[in-house]
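Changelog entry

Holo records now carry the ligand SMILES as an explicit input line rather than a separate metadata file. Below, a converted record for S-adenosylmethionine, shown in the new format.
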Amino acid sequence: MESNFQSALFQNYKERDRKLNVYSNFSYKYLVNFSQTKELPIHRWFYYQEGYSPKLVKNILKHLGLLTKKKILVFDPFAGSGTTLLTSKQLGFKASGFEINPFSAFMIRVKTRNYSEEDLKQYSNFKIPEYKKMKDSYSKYDLSIIKKLFDEQKLEKIEILKEAIGKVSNEKVKDLLVATLLSILESVSYYRKAGNGLKRKRVHKDLDPFIEFQKKREEILLDLIAKTSNNAEPLIINDSCLNLGKYDINEIDISIFSPPYANCFDPFEVYKIELWIGEFINGYADLKGKRKNALTSNLNANLNKEFNSEHRTDLLEQILRVLSKKVLWDKRIVKMLDTYFYDMYIVLNEIFNKTKEKGYCVIVVGNSSYGNITVPTDIILAEIGEKIGFKTKEIIVGRTNEASSQQHAKLGSFKYYVRESIVILQK
Ligand SMILES: C[S@@+](CC[C@H](N)C(=O)[O-])C[C@H]1O[C@@H](n2cnc3c(N)ncnc32)[C@H](O)[C@@H]1O
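Structure line, unchanged by the conversion:
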């Protein structure tokens, strides 16, 4: 039996759906995730579970009549694997973006660069060294699970590759080789990325780092040789997009992005292998600092920000009130959600200021559930956008979670709001 509070809340969701022009278009179903992207040239180099499809970016541009425009600036404040930036570059558009994770920012840079024939020749000619036994390669890393990730010989081979790559003088080629190595780490390790963390593989294929490196290099070469365009490289900033105001990015025509969802997944957790082996961070204290600068979408982020209630819409107030009366699996969840929407208010405000009149802000986002209540992030972000001055053009529901798991059964009518949507705002 749903309480009166809950049914009042549900009625409010339905009313917002009507007001905000929410409708379904399930042709987006497989575009809001990475499933189709993993086969595509360049995008496929590194599997990125939080990514969406380049086709989503193209479809949105087409839907809004921008695909045939000559010069537009596309912006992505949460660039991830760089789907928006790479697709925009391939379409010949100017593109800029932020990404807080230094490993991800590095991968986007490598994927969106232009390479000369000479660069590719040097890349192809890089010689994989002979294997030699090393002295305690584990001791170099203070990563607690390093011994569980790789057996000694595998880590030694990784180290041998790293050392040889370090001697390459052409920086672009060096980065491409580093990216090649980082892209095979998960497959040669005993662990896999799974949801919110790294989990031991149930079936472990004993893959050799030298052979996997060579295979990955062939894939990368194939993609780069086939690529014909040498369009302008996007600007990629490895900083928090909450600092957008400090940067000289202006006159944005359209932002297309997916922020971390408010689902308590820490976006750094699954990239620990690449962050450590790639030496993008100097240990746990450094990681902690980076987590605190990221968007507050999980319990490792900064939950101690001070702010007033400027960002809160009536609906958000109501949800926070209802949730604060419940016993949730962690006492900090209500604070996390409030901070999440505060951070998004700051980001949307910055984007609004930097967007051209009539320009668009397109947010791809999934809703999350706590205490048998679904938090309609799509609706709340549209309402926050309106507070700032955007108008909601529409919210396209691309995917609903129809699974009848126990968890979803408990959600009752809120089950319908377990969905991933494309929120289209216009200045
Ligand atoms: C859902 S993913 C984006 C995926 C992307 N659309 C793609 O297709 O690859 C969100 C990204 O936001 C990044 N992020 C989190 N907080 C950030 C912040 N404050 N500034 C910039 N990036 C941030 C995370 O590291 C993560 O890569």
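Spot-checked after migration. The chain has a mean pLDDT of 94. Residues 48, 50-52, 77-78, 80-81, 83, 98-101, 104, 240-242, 257-260, 267, 294-295 surround S-adenosylmethionine (CB under 6 Å).
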